[in-house]
Fold this protein.
Amino acid sequence: MSATQSCLSDPRFGYDFVVATTQESINASMKEFLSGLTEPVVTMCYVADATGKPQAIAHADLVAEAQGSDPFIVPPDADPATNQDLKNLLAARFMMGFRAQLGIPPAEPKADVPNVVTLGADTGSVAFNLLCSEFDVVQLMPGGGYSAQPTWMNVSQPSDAPWVFTSKVDLLMTEVSQSEFSGLPAAVRSQVMALGGDPFSVQQLLFDLDNAALETTPVISGVEPGTDLYTVLNETFLGSYFAQLKAQGQPLLGCVITQPSAPPATLVPTGLELEVCPLLNDDSSPIPSPTPQQAGLATLNYLCSAGGDTLPPAVAFSWNWIDPLPEQQADGVMAINRGAFARYLEAQLYSYTSSNCYQPVVEVDDYKVAGVSWTTGLTPDQAPTVTYPNDESTLISFTWTADAHDESGNTFGEEWMTSSFSLAVTYAGNIMTVTQHLVIYLKIRSLATYGSGNVVDITVVDTYTLAATQAGALAVTMTSTRTDNSKNPSTNSFLNFWTDLNSIIDSIKDWARNVVPTALTDVPVSVLQDFVFPGGKTFTFTQVAFSKAGDLTSEISYTATD
């Protein structure tokens, strides 16, 4: 997949993680969601005030004032001159009204239903089509002047030609004054930015776009301009109703969402921005006239920060997130910045690594006449140096080196000890490798005789093959190899006869080898299995792999919407 090019650690980007979903998958999932939606039916009615201007009135109040007459049940062919309900409505000064429910129009085939979201070349906005499963418009003109007779209109959205209200929606969800989002009421902004729940779901996206659409007046399609119906829709739905919602900060057509409990993600988003990425040519320029298939592979990108990190501004990516291949089945890609994943590994591995970082302690003292006493120690839990190499193989490394030296006052004995430990995490494709190397070097002099060598020299290589559970937790299989190159330093038998150095070395060597193995073990698979991708309540996860630059990526697909 094209996510192999992901390089979020590039200074141009810097996002902790990115979720990229295709236009095709967004619309398929959103239509599925809208098909089962039970949003409330919104009914708006207007009567003439004292100056003849439209004034909103509750539907129940209108029916009461009109002696029980309901404009929405009056037949389209009713005659205002003879129909008692219309006479009652005229007496109540009724002008017009609409009844609408957010959802998928009952068009057949379903493929004829327009897309809800269209991602174009503009990376900072999308086209949002508001669709309704039900839409009725009524209007009662009182007549007068050149039109002596009252006129009545009762029109419903045709099942085979839905009315579509299209808005250009600003994706900049920040508080800055030039952002359309900043104009929304605080209560709405807080729900749009409800990052602790399920920020990547189509339900949340619908709510976000639905509220942002209030900032621009939609364009109507499916209705002939200049007709009475077109005029009424402009005056009531796009005029008075929109103005009321903007003033009150209420969602369009009563759109609401229920936040699920927060998924147990390792990286919980604390900042989020949206961006459109059209399908790119090989030179990273947008395809100028994309085919419908190519347009469907444009992605809506969630740019995320976590842990309170500052969210960098939106910058266009230079790669496609999804390959335009016939066998491509994924709805999108999630990519974790190599730096964010390395910081997770540091938190998980630091304590274990520290337990293998030893500070040597040696003490050589005079003992009786021409004798020497040897005291040796290794103090664990030292602080290793942690680095994040910026290369295409190593995610993180821990290193530690320390030494100690002492000699007796009579110079009969002398001892050197060096402890070194390293742990490196490397990657390639869906393989992550943890390599540990622990060395304890010992050098001893007794009189003029020396013995030296690595009394402990152990390498442990753990190889993890990565996958993911459907809920987004890393699934791991591990193989391990352990290589022991420890030496038995000794002197030749003639010199040893005079100094007995070999027994001294053996004693210290055996002690060191007994101390070290208790801490040097395989890195537990739980270190990786405890990592959970964000969005586990929205997506299923497959094909986990590292990109060439070290970002941890996974293909994602929308789960069934509720």
Notes: Confidence is low (pLDDT under 50) at residues 173-185, 191-196, 249-263, 491-499. The chain is about 20% helix and 35% strand. Residues 26-117+129-170+215-254 form one domain. Residues 228-248 form the longest helix (21 residues).
